[in-house]
Amino acid sequence: MQFYKDRLLSPGQLKRLSEHKYSCTSNSLLDGLLQPWWDWLVSKVPLWLAPNLITVLGLVVNIATTLILVYYSPDARAEAPRWACFLCALGLFVYQSLDAIDGKQARRTGTSTPLGELFDHGCDSISTVFVALSACIAVQLGYYPTWMFFQCFCAMTLFYCAHWQTYVSGSLRFGKVDVTEAQFTIIGIHLISAIFGPEIWMMEIPVLGVGTFSTYMAMVFYAGYIHVFLEFCKVFESGGIGKNGSTIALPYTGTEVKVFPLWAAVGIAILLAQSSISVILAGGVGKNGSTVAGTSVLSPIIPFSFVVVPAFIIYRKSAEHVYENHPALYILSFGMVAAKVTNRLVVAHMTKNEMQYLDSSLIGPAMLFLNQYFNFFIKEYYVLWVCFIWVTLDLFRYSAQVCLEICDHMKIKLFRIPCNNHAGTVQANAAERNVHMMLEEEPLLDDEYHHGSDTAVDL
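Structure for diacylglycerol cholinephosphotransferase, as requested:
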């Protein structure tokens, strides 16, 4: 493992990446319903706006709104302002919409490249961390640190598994209940906190209405996020506030309302993980059932385990309870490491190359681990900040260098559309408008000119 290489991608990798073709199948329930909105939205985007710029603008909005929530509730226990929750819901909706139209803008302007796919997935890997963290803060999940740890790392793991099965099968697959449904469920959670306040998650449910806990869990497994969200709405309408602001447990389950989103996360996690794992275990498209790079289908589990396992050990062994006292900073630190490892997996898939197990970003978690192991005098909180700064800078350094190398190889710009592409697109759109005008004016022409206009259109 070399920390700073002059070239991260070899000439062979760049050649294979330039030949990469995007492959994706989606059975999402919401994608079909949202297509008209996305089509209308992209039609309002100016042709000079680069697709990658649309993606990064959405990511910046999502990060900014989440950081506002983190500012007011860094421990995920303090009650954040309602307007901050609403702003977070709006930021996630903006990100989701812009993320959906960047590919449409690329096809619209004739600038579709493998770099766009890589850049989109890279931004998604970072967004996943902030979206999961914001959902935990909205329901004050800091009171349940283990559940919060599971929720956030479950989101990172599922995103990694999605690209793991892509590395194995060569195609990205979305189920009926997948990313879009999860995003809108979290938007709903933010809106509920914004309208009723975070205390809504402490309301008592007099009648659960679905029987035992196991029955409810089964419903979550097979219904998905949308059904769960509708059940949440019914629950809130019939609940009541506990005495003296105390936390009320649900009858028959002994579980508080704020843990309901975690039940949903568990169910969806099992559903999505099952679909990804089934693809992985079925064998890859490479030789003898290997990955697209010809490696073992199980090899990607090693790099990600270097993220999750140390995160859990440090959390459980911390004498200063660094995670419980600073959950947001802790999740963001390890989330950036997970994003870096996921980006390397995406690069390995698109370049059909083997994925290295070790990474320079792991120095951050190693700082925390060694500080605990040798019982240094430095406070873990300060080491955590150093870890966060290191892994964040390392992620952006890696991402920037990979993008620049691809841009240099393919002779393209990252955030600009070349003038010739823009001019060609404008001419094509003008020609299309002229054809529509000719077709609209045809009934006003006599038979002789009508025949000529048909010939012109056919040509």
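The radius of gyration is 25 Å.
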